[in-house]
Write a structure and sequence with these properties.
single chain, 277 residues, alpha/beta, five-stranded mixed sheet, 18% helix, globular, binds zinc ion
C-alpha cells in the first residue's frame, strides 16, 4: 500500500461559530448496511463512575454509512458499511476466530445504495478501519481516493480482521498534527476546502478515529461515528469500552463532544450505530 498525504489548506477560523456562519449547499443521508449485535454492558463502559449498574443486554443496531452530496463538488461517502458477501455469510467470507459477525439483508449492501441513488463517488472518507465501517470497500470503485487519519492504517491488522483494502494501490492519510485547533472539539480539517465538510480527530475508539461535521444550510450535523455508538453514550456521558483501543482516551473524546454539543445546541448529532436525533 502506498500511503499518501491528504492535501488540505489550513483554515483560518477562530472558533466553531465562525464555521457555522459559513454553511454550504451540502446534504447528508444515511444508508443502513445491515446490523450488528452489541452489548449494552460495554457499549456503555460499566466501570465508569456515572455508569451505575449496567446489565448485560443484547442490542441489535444498524451499520451505517453516509452519502454526502455537495451541490458544486459532487458525491462523497463517509464510511463504507458492508459489501454483499455478508448477505449469505455473516462473516463476509473471512476465516478466523477474531472475525466479526454481521447481518445483512438483500439490497442493503453499500454498492446497492450507490447504484440505486445514481451516486458518482468522488472520494470516500473513513472514520476508521473496523470491519463494519470498511468492509464495503471491497465492492466500491478502486479509482477514487480513500482517506483515513494518519496512524489508522499502521494499526490495521488485515490478517486478523480481513483485508478490506485489497485492490487499493494507495491510501490517503489526514495529518492532524498541523490542523486547526478550536475549543472544545478539534483538531479539525476542512476536507473540501470551502468549510462544508470537516474531519475532526476523535481518537480513543481507534488510534486514528475521526468524526465528521457536515455544515449544511439547514443546520450543522455532527456525525460522531464510533466516538459514541448510541445516543445513550452522549446522554449519560459514558463512552463505550467494548471494541475500544484506549478507553480513557475514548472517554476524554466523548467529554469533548458533549461539551461541544452543549456549547452549540443548534448542532444535530448522529451516533456510530444510531441515526440522527
Ligand atoms: Zn469501530
Amino acid at each position: 500500500m502506498r500511503l499518501k498525504r491528504y492535501i488540505y489548506r489550513k483554515t483560518k477560523v477562530e472558533n466553531w461559530t465562525e464555521v457555522f456562519q459559513n454553511p454550504s449547499q451540502i446534504t447528508v443521508r444515511s444508508f443502513q448496511t445491515g446490523t450488528v449485535k452489541i452489548n449494552r454492558r460495554g457499549t456503555l463502559n460499566p466501570d465508569h463512575p456515572r455508569a451505575g449498574d449496567i446489565q448485560k443486554e443484547e442490542l441489535e443496531v444498524p451499520i451505517l454509512a453516509y452519502w454526502v452530496h455537495h451541490e458544486g463538488k459532487g458525491d462523497f461517502l463517509l464510511d463504507a458499511g458492508l459489501d454483499a458477501s455478508y448477505i449469505l455469510d455473516p462473516h463476509g467470507g473471512l476465516e478466523g476466530s477474531a472475525v466479526d459477525e454481521f447481518k445483512l439483508g438483500e439490497h442493503e449492501n453499500i454498492s446497492y445504495h450507490i447504484r440505486n441513488n445514481n451516486i458518482k463517488l468522488k472520494t470516500a472518507f473513513l472514520s476508521h478501519l473496523h470491519a463494519d465501517h470498511a468492509a464495503g470497500i471491497r465492492e466500491l470503485p478502486k479509482d477514487i481516493p480513500y482517506v483515513v487519519s494518519k496512524g489508522e492504517y499502521d494499526a490495521y491488522q488485515p490478517e486478523v480482521n480481513g483485508n478490506f483494502l485489497e485492490g487499493l494501490e494507495e491510501l490517503y492519510e489526514i495529518d492532524f498534527s498541523q490542523a486547526t485547533e478550536l475549543t472544545p472539539l478539534s483538531p479539525i480539517v476542512d476536507l473540501l476546502g470551502d468549510g462544508s465538510l470537516w474531519a475532526i480527530s476523535t481518537p480513543g475508539h481507534t488510534q486514528g478515529h475521526i468524526s465528521f461535521l457536515v455544515n449544511g444550510m439547514e443546520m450543522p450535523i455532527l456525525l460522531a461515528m464510533d466516538a459514541a455508538f448510541i445516543h445513550e453514550n452522549l446522554e449519560r456521558g459514558v463512552a463505550p469500552s467494548d471494541y475500544t483501543w484506549d478507553v480513557e482516551m475514548a472517554q476524554d473524546t466523548l467529554d469533548k463532544v458533549i461539551e461541544f454539543l452543549r456549547e452549540y445546541p443548534q448542532v444535530r448529532v448522529g451516533a456510530g450505530h444510531e441515526d440522527l436525533k
